[in-house]
Amino acid sequence: MSPLKPNAAVPRGPFSLIARVYRYVLPEVREQLRYWRGRADEMPDAELRKQAIDSMTSKEFHCIGGAVYAAANPSMRHMLIPLIVAFQTISDYLDNLCDRSTSLDPDDFRRLHQSMLDAVDPAEPLHDYYEFREEREDAGYLNDLVKTCQASIRMLPSYPLVAASVRELVSLYADLQVYKHIRKDLREEALLTWWNAHKEQFPAIQWNEFAAATGSTLGVFMLFLAASRTGLRTETAAAIREAYFPYICGLHILLDYLIDQEEDRAGGDLNFCSYYEDMDATVDRIALIVEEARRKSDTLEHSDFHRMIIEGLLALYLSDPKVSRQQEVKRISRRLMKGSPWMRLFFLVNSVWIRRTT
Fold first, then answer.
1. What angle, 0 to 180 degrees and rounded to 10, lies between the N-to-C axes of helices 26-41 and 77-99?
2. Buried b (16+ CB within 10 A) or exposed e, 104-114
3. What does the pLDDT average to over 102-123?
4. Cα torsion for 138, 140, 141, 144, to the nearest 10°?
5. Residue 263 and residue 322: Cα distance in Å, rounded?
6. How far, CA to CA in Å, does 80 sit from each of 33, 148, 217, 246, 347?
7. Neighbour-count burial for 222-241, b at 16+ CB within 10 Å, e otherwise
């Protein structure tokens, strides 16, 4: 498959982006997920099988959203879509194992997430990811997800230029998953201690915003996309890392927490939006992060594409049916969508449509 010219491959407007999503991304993501669902069905261990299947059933949209990055370089989608789907499937599976399964052991959580670090380093051998838990028999499911990522990454021509940033973001993601899933009486202190080790690097954000940003895989996916092109420059990779973390990544996860507040309160689950003083403070901070994400995206090459990602995030989360059931969240949604460009309306309509077909 011959590569497209770099500029020709990047969609500049929502119509071309959405056309590629429907033509390439949706069918190819679903094909990949069908394969991994079949693999999950083969797991001997009932608990691991349940969590793997549940994660793909309830979080398919995560893979679709992540694979939108492949639409910016369709000539390399045969590498990018399997990579993004496999990596996001690991993330969603491990989130279920930590959040809904049988362990509260931080060593278990750390070892499980070693799989994500191995997945983004083709030189790393596989480890015993289930070392600290009773459930172990997955018929090679997690190992094969890791190997799929490694095989795809080996084919990305510029990966050495983004490898350190990818590993940094994945390491932060793994830290978050450990600290947020330990015993409830320990997790806040652990998160604040972790923040203290990083806060000097991010003086403009609060600890809960940093933690939220570490929970996003969008920065990793954008770096995968950048690495799929020949001739990537070191300064371009650095600019992507700075724009995505913490602002675009933080916006992604704060919106997710924003719409989940009601169910998290009912379930006693940690929610990073709950650490704001009140709803006014919540909307002020998220609005500030939106504006900073837009400003940072405007400094990047192909800034139109990154702006579409931001507007698409707002449309995706603020069109979720959960919003209509929460009056305060509806109020925030109206403010964030105030003066919304037509592009965001376009993405909103398509978000509703795609959600209904998944």
1. 50
2. ebbebbebbbb
3. 95
4. 170
5. 9
6. 14, 11, 14, 23, 22
7. bbbbbbbbeebeeebbebbb
Task: Locate 67 and state its tokens.
Answer: 């694979």
**Residue pointed to by tokens 């192909």:** 302
pTM value is 0.92
Contact 303, 261 (CB under 8 A): no
Burial of 342 (0-12, 13-18, 19+ CB in 10 A): exposed
Per residue in 167-191, pLDDT (tens digit) is 999 999 999 999 999 998 999 999 9
Do the beta carbons of residue 242 and residue 213 sit within 8 Å?
no
Q: Dihedral of CA 74/290/274/337: which sign? A: negative
- DSSP secondary structure of 294-344: HHHHTTSTTHHHHHHHHHHHHHHHHTSHHHHT-HHHHHHHHHHHTT--HHH
Nearest to residue 40, comparing CAs of 24, 64, 57, 62?
57
Structure tokens at 250: 């933080």
Q: At what angle do helices 141-154 and 26-41 cross, to 10 degrees?
A: 150
Kindly report the length of the chain: 358
pLDDT digits (tens, 9 = 90+) for 266-305: 777 889 999 999 888 998 999 999 999 999 999 999 999 9
Report CA Rg, the chain: 19
